[in-house]
Write a structure and sequence with these properties.
single chain, alpha+beta, SH3 type barrels, three-stranded antiparallel beta sheet, 1 helix
Length: 77
Amino acid sequence: MKNKNLTGSAKKFQKILKHYMKHKGLQIEVTLKNGENVTIDGNRKLSGNDIVRTDRWGIETFRVDITDIKKADIYAI
């Protein structure tokens, strides 16, 4: 986990993201600053400044720092 100090807008984004991460019925599609699109659904959690996605056995399959996210779209599934 990276230990970065978040800017004001990143702290606000983290707070909003934490709210939506609790709802398992939502699919979160993030666009990273490098242009990559990633869909985060199912088992996910916010760990410090990172979004962590795990498989059903609890093995980490994806991790991204929230400061690397350009935008996030949230869909009801």
